[in-house]
Fold each of these.
Amino acid sequence: MIIAPSILNLKEDEYDDKLQEFLDAGIKILHLDIMDGKFVSNTTKDIEIMEKVRKFPFFFEVHLMMFKPLEMAYKFIDLGANLIIFHYEAVNDVADTIKRLKEKGCKIGISIKPYTKIDVIKPYLKDIDSVLVMSVEPGFGGQTFIERSIDKIEELNKIRQQNNLNYLIEVDGGVNLSNSPLLKRRGTDVVVMGSFLINNDVKMIADKVKNL
Ligand code: DX5
Ligand code: ZN
């Protein structure tokens, strides 16, 4: 399984050392959480974060927790973002959002909150590269994994197999080494890991997740 560190709970002056540690541990994806204080009750900086981390050779996935995400998405794409993930619940026109991002040539992901059903994103699954299943309410790192997310992963995996689709299944929120093996068995490709990774031995965790 692939690991994508979230640096939401990292202080800015820790970025350089920690990101180098991620690279040394063979980690290739970096997950950036961007919040505007409206769609979720927390706020982060936005492109300033990208400006600080883009010198590192990661595949950058940007998780936009905001309404009207397109304008911000374009700024991130210009700075080198590779995958833009927007929230199903945050846009009025999902198909149009996908179309506009496609015109920019980036990869596209849709995220759904813990109580949003898979059914609503079914029509778009053929057009996207990734589904980010939120396993906590978006907004803060360090929360407890919501168990019912497992069923959604299984459902997404089934739909993918039955329809010969290629999207990645990513899981975000409360992921650790105890729940990762089950996530893998149910069809997860990428686990986003924030607090658990940052508070423990990065290389040890990266190796374990890689071998799942
Ligand atoms: C939450 C964010 C997550 C989160 C992950 O809204 O999208 O990426 O920071 O952190 P942990 O692993 O601590 O739940
Ligand atoms: Zn996230």
Amino acid sequence: MTPSLSPSLLVDLRGQSVQVVEVGPRDGLQNERAHVPTADKVAFVEQLAAAGLTRIEVSAFVSPHRVPQMADAAALCAGLTRRAGVRYSALVPNLAGLRRALSAGVDEVAIFAAASETFSRKNINQGIDESLIAYAEVCRAAREAGLPVRGYLSTCFGCPFEGAVPPARVAELAGRLMEMGVREVALSDTIGVAHPAQVWDVVGATADVVPVAALALHLHDTRGTALANVLAGLEAGVRTFDAAAGGLGGCPYAPGASGNLATEDLVYLLDGLGMVSGISLDGVVAASQHLQPRIGHPMPSRVLQATGRSTGQ
Ligand code: MG
């Protein structure tokens, strides 16, 4: 007998809303070697907002010595002409970063914990428990200031140092982030090893602890599985996905990690499914095309390449 796919999932998704969190200006540019001038970053963010992205992570208020690409976070925020209805967010590692983010007038902040102990120590120089104690302080202060907090959870699908990460561990840590007041947990495939069955397992385990509406998936396309993982996430009930225009980025502390899932590739899939994102594919392509000469290499987005705009010409 010939096996056949049930069409029910695809039919069900038609007309449903889906949210894309654009992380290119932060997660993308943070991990590119090229120095991108602040004015070009401002233009990039403004073009992404014009393309219909309503959540944009614009920068990180981290140590400029450790992450020189993000040293202009305040200048970038000051230079932005903000668009109504767009939430501009930034990553903050601690209370000092939060204070800088508040001064810059961001609409949301994000903290970054990890699901594996070794990655946590290598990435932020703290063990998981220690980091959560510090992040609880950041959460409390952010909420007192009226800012929503997003929590990244790295290495949910595998750690470059420890290998497999149990879904139950991911669920437990996601629950602890929610308890401290995080509004959304981004389950992150830091090294791009996730596959669809695993997405189903991890989201399923986590959704027992955290409402699925409060979950986002942050995927990398290292092994070519990012879009398949999006589909598995949609099937599991996730409606928020991170992506970076052009497929910018990687992770300097995760050996072998390639770029983030490209916003263009995600929007192409969502459009094809008939889902409602409010994002113009042409608009995102234009934003990537404009930035590309500043990056120093062709961007990996398949849609960008297919439109013949990936050579920086
Ligand atoms: Mg990433």
Amino acid sequence: MQLTVEALQQWIITINNKIQENKEHLSELDQSIGDGDHGHNMARGFQEVVHKMEAASYEETGSLFKEVAMTLISKVGGASGPLYGTAFLKASDQWKERTTVDQQALAKGMEAAVEGIKTRGKAHEGDKTMLDVWAPVLDYVQNKPIENDSLKETAKQAMEKTKGMTAKKGRAAYFKERSSDCIDPGAFSSYLIFEALAECMVDGGGSDA
Ligand code: ADP
Ligand code: MG
């Protein structure tokens, strides 16, 4: 697996398409255990990311993801904006000067991203947050040869498992046991991010080189 700058840009575009398609669903999930703004926050942020990306050109993957991160921090808002922004910013540090990202570099970037989410949000696995998707997907990327169906399935199962967890962080924590009736909105948006990655590895210029 070798993701070029173009393939990674396609990943971002695909994330945006999925977020726009699922905007209402994400906000409905957040309505049940939060303030109902997650879909709108993410849709606003990723739309702006795509606008900025289309107006620029990138020689390497680090500068692409730095711009993605800074835009998410400034445009998404809520708890999730700084957390996603930190995740992509930490990944961009690992991808500085790289013109392609192979599986090892993807694992390094994701490891830094997960550390960033943990440091910033002080959540642990099982607290019913986006981390409950990022951590199992990181484990998969670190330990298995990436294959698109199993990457998607890993993210999907992790997202579905947040139903049944009691929220310990963020607004959802105020709902206590009642929070366990539904999927965490940030886990769902994270699932869309990795579903988009899986699709781009096939369609978007990923190669076996
Ligand atoms: P807000 O809660 O400020 O309205 P959003 O609705 O955009 O922000 O995002 C909520 C999502 O953010 C949650 O579903 C959860 O996945 C994630 N989240 C909230 N707090 C944390 C945290 N401390 N660590 C990791 N993820 C968190
Ligand atoms: Mg919210």
Amino acid sequence: MSASTRYTCYTGFRLTHGDFVYLTFMRVLISERAIKKKVKQLAALLAREYKGTDCVFVGVLYGGFVFLADLVRELHRYDLHPAIDFVRLTSYQGTESTGTIRIYKDVELDLTAKRVLIVDDILDTGMTLKFLKEHLSQKGATDVKLCVLLDKKGRRKVDITPDYVGFEIGNYFVVGYGLDCDHRYRNLPYIAIYEG
Ligand code: IMP
Ligand code: MG
């Protein structure tokens, strides 16, 4: 397999207006194998931190659902079974942040005296997760930590540091493994650079 085929993937047909049909190729930034390995490593770290505690993992919809699902299934190996809840916030439309964060769905579990871990796909400007961290901290949790698969450190606009990070990446718009562009490509098992 040549280097170019190894790092380029064919994701299928993309239909646009009219009768034009495009083939979509994307460059793979992080392979499925690398993600699997990283999820195992993160699960081991999280098991050490949360074993024996009353913890709630809060997935951020929709982007965080794949990462959270893989992470918690890995945690059964450590006999760690966190309670799981979800929030849904939004600040993005297409590939751009609108800057206004809204809560569509709040947590349903009582977080009083719980150790809370927010699990999301990516930390970009940081505005969404800073907002969420402050929001959840007001619900009586013992502590609220943050675990993200990807960190676009160079794009940060607010002061927030993740406690657990899978990969630091550059300023690309990426899709796959939960990340989308207009709700597509979340199902890719790898992270690819979306070139439009
Ligand atoms: P932030 O508030 O700018 O940090 O944005 C966080 C949210 O924006 C993430 O949870 C994603 O849903 C979305 N986002 C940021 N960068 C990307 C990207 O490269 N691809 C897809 N979604 C992204
Ligand atoms: Mg998100």
